[in-house]
Amino acid sequence: MVSNSLPSLNSAWHTIDPVRSLDLLQSDRKIGLTQQQVDERLQEFGTNELEEAGGRSSWEILIDQFKNVMLLLLIGVALVSGALDLLDLVQGVGKPGDIPFKDTIAILAIVVLNGALGYFQESRAEKALAALKQLSSPRVRILRDGKVHEIDSEQLVPGDVMMVEAGVQLAADGRLLETSNLQIRESALTGEAHAVNKQADLHLPEETSLGDRLNLVYQGTEVVQGRGTVVVTSTGMRTELGKIATMLQAVETEPTPLQQRMDQLSQALVTGALILVGVVVIGGLIAARSFAPIRELLQVSLSMAVAVVPEGLPAVITVTLAIGTQRMVRRNALIRKLPAVETLGSVTTICSDKTGTLTQNKMVVQSFHTASFSPSVTGEGYVPEGKFLIQGQVANPTDYPEVRSLLLACTLCNDSLLQSENGQWTILGDPTEGALLVVAAKAGLEQDQWNSKLPRVSEIPFTSERKRMSVIVEDAAKLLESETGFLSTPYLMFTKGSPELVLERCQKIQYGDRIQGLTDEQRTQILERNNQLAARGLRVLGFAYKPLDNVPPEGSDSAENDLIWLGLVDMLDAPRLEVRDAVARCRTAGIRPVMITGDHQLTAQAIAEHLGISKPGDEVLIGRDLEKMDLPELERHVDRVSIYARVAPEHKLRIVQALQRQGKIVAMTGDGVNDAPALKQADIGIAMGITGTDVSKEASDMVLLDDNFATIVAATEEGRVVYTNIRRFIKYILGSNIGEVLTIAASPLLLSTGGVPLSPLQILWMNLVTDGLPALALAVEPAEPNVMNRPPNRPDENIFSRGLGSYMIRIGIILAVLTIVLMVGAYDYTTQNFGNGLDADRWKTMVFTTLCIAQMGHAIAIRSNSKLTIELDPRTNPYVWGAVIITTILQLLLIYVAPLRSFFGTHYLTLNELAVCFGFSALMFVWIEMEKLFVRWFVNRR
Ligand code: ATP
């Protein structure tokens, strides 16, 4: 759609210059759009959204349902059962009152129902996951009505002036207005993995291909380095990415390891069921030496085949994982990839950044250290009010040239903004830089004023590898040396960063209003002071400057040499209060927390010791030393080291790899562009929701909405709860299947005649409804108190390990023994009382009812492995009780409502008969409770 008011939207933007682009889009470089223009354009072009694509289509989800081997087995059973009915019909033998093809129709109906349920569950899960992703939708920094704002990328309109920097994923297409070392990776669009250098001041011929339009930027591409200003030319589906209509953030619904294991299990069970059918039919025929019993044998084997397969299980697992993600998001952990829910339960090592994750990321400058003064500063938070104390006396810092120069450097060498909205002071950008702006404002230095006196003409951006940044400003106002404290030259360069690295590049030092050579003694003193401050847990930055006659060319290596040292600034970033506790929880849960930081070793140590991550004397590995190690050598250290300091993002990747080679399951946090490879490599890559770059979020499995370490621990706990609950209902469902199979197998052996106790339809009813509902309720069982008091689940652990397999078999046998005893008694009782008539079949309904109701007792008792049911608070999981009551009522309806009775092939039971069934069923509950008592006694005795 081309707008009427903006006929220019079809322009070949790469052929026109920035000024013309702004004209065509009726926008302004200094003001941006007005709110009125924004409202009109939102009306006209809609929000900046891509129609979702990339996930599975509805059809694909539906077809996937029928790829399930269990459903295929059921279809097979339906067909064989239909063929038998057809045979009866042709031979005119069926039982009077029987509806022909009833089982076939019912089984097919259940197949369709199951497919439909699976379809709705999966599409809901995909939608929920997509909706969750929206929560972490990128924010963009733009200029509107002359002010800088941060908005949701969906609110962008053509004409918006947008600021981009390293780590940003572009939210719209645009024409570059200004660039500074801007490098963009366009692989999402062009497939080219290398980043391209972008430049605003190029004029390109019309025929230039997409990948060569170096003055344009495209939605979905990533800023790898540098900064730029862009005027948005198209949004939503009109962008280049929109045109090819692939959603970059495609929903990922990979099967989780457990789902894969369950798929393998169902294949094994189906194969087992088919073998069972073969054995029963062929064995039966050989034993009888005739084809006469084929019908009966087929019926037994079909029932057994249906009974073996846990039809309800896949659906319950999907729902449980979905519930897990909901629970996690309530605790501020947003799951982007479903397998993460499960992997979280196995995490053994959490590697966390320091700044913002373990600390509050609310920096407050404490003091300065120039050649001759160390003023301290009062005041809290971002409010620019406070006093400067020099030698214990309140002083005006701008009276001291050294201090004044340092404060000016804080203001000018800065990419952030200090803003006041409704009386609240906030920082737009990096909190470290925010703290510097606050302290400069406390001294009365206005950022805007100084930025226009000394406008920035070039910069060398900050990266975590370089650990410093520089800006070059022009002395536009022709200021006197006395006004700034700096030498008066056409240009000035300011550098700030890690003190050691900045000091290395200095040859001189500012001393009062003079410049002197920097002596070795001074260097040593500065480094000692730096260490003292860092050992108190403070974050320290070094500042320097140099006068320039010309602007150095972009990418020049030597630009940051021969600097003049200005001083140190230290700031406090208090540890988060809740982290100490979370670290202690990690320890009891067998998880090792590790700090990986770009900050100074001593700062890292002080904070890690305060939080309980390390002890005094523990080994600390520095990025520089780590670099010299090969992977096997690093592997020998990773087990001991809990602090990595002064590391660069690429070191993180090697740390993860070394830990993984040691068999650890690693969760790793990250926020920058260059953290992406480590996040991808980690078993759980965790991005920061607030401070994280779009690129890091894209690479992650999980996003912390509050950037908080404690949230990782909370998510780990939820992961363990999900895993425990899945194991719980697997025990419950498969135990029941074993009971059914054994009962059916015993019937021809123990009863002289009378056929199979359970029809395929009744078994399906049990597996899907009477087992399914309580299993769903068991899936929301809350955490047991000891869930974080045991070691992590072994990732390679078989789901049946730790007693699950033996439990299933034991309980299956108990269930079968109870039912078989009842079956033999009921069979004798009905054949004696009702002869061979139709009523003689009521023993079958008694078996059916006992199996169902016994499972209700099982559901109630299995809520806890160790606690008796009377010791559990029923209010902690009322769903189990609800499911048990509903399922019991449904079962009774099958017996006492005539149409249901005839459909399900059940018989009316007298109250006495029903009471016998309930009595036998109750024994199941009693048995499990006795087991718990026995285990308790046994453990106490030992
Ligand atoms: P973490 O890795 O735990 O988040 P960090 O924030 O210190 O710690 P980086 O952001 O990589 O890690 O910073 C590394 C170092 O670079 C810091 O210790 C500091 O010395 C320096 N530094 C940080 N921010 C800036 C900045 N905006 N400008 C200049 N130097 C900076």
TrEMBL record:
GO terms for biological process: intracellular potassium ion homeostasis; intracellular sodium ion homeostasis; potassium ion import across plasma membrane; proton transmembrane transport; sodium ion export across plasma membrane. It comes from the Bacteria. The keyword Nucleotide-binding applies. It holds the Pfam family E1-E2_ATPase. CDD domains: P-type_ATPase_Ca_prok. Residues 12-86 form the Cation-transporting P-type ATPase N-terminal domain. GO terms for cellular component: plasma membrane. The chain crosses the membrane at residues 66-84, 104-120, 268-288, 300-323, 729-751, 763-783, 804-827, 847-866, 878-897, 909-928. Coiled coil: none annotated. Its main location: membrane. It is found in: Cell membrane. SMART domains: Cation_ATPase_N (SM00831). Signal peptide: none annotated. Keywords: ATP-binding, Cell membrane, Membrane, Nucleotide-binding, Translocase, Transmembrane, Transmembrane helix. It is a multi-pass membrane protein. The keyword Nucleotidyltransferase does not apply. SUPFAM superfamilies: Calcium ATPase, transduction domain A, Calcium ATPase, transmembrane domain M, HAD-like, Metal cation-transporting ATPase, ATP-binding domain N. GO terms for molecular function: ATP binding; ATP hydrolysis activity; P-type sodium:potassium-exchanging transporter activity. Belongs to the cation transport ATPase (P-type) (TC 3.A.3) family. Type IIA subfamily. NCBIfam families: ATPase_P-type (TIGR01494). This is Cation-translocating P-type ATPase. It comes from Phormidesmis priestleyi ULC007.
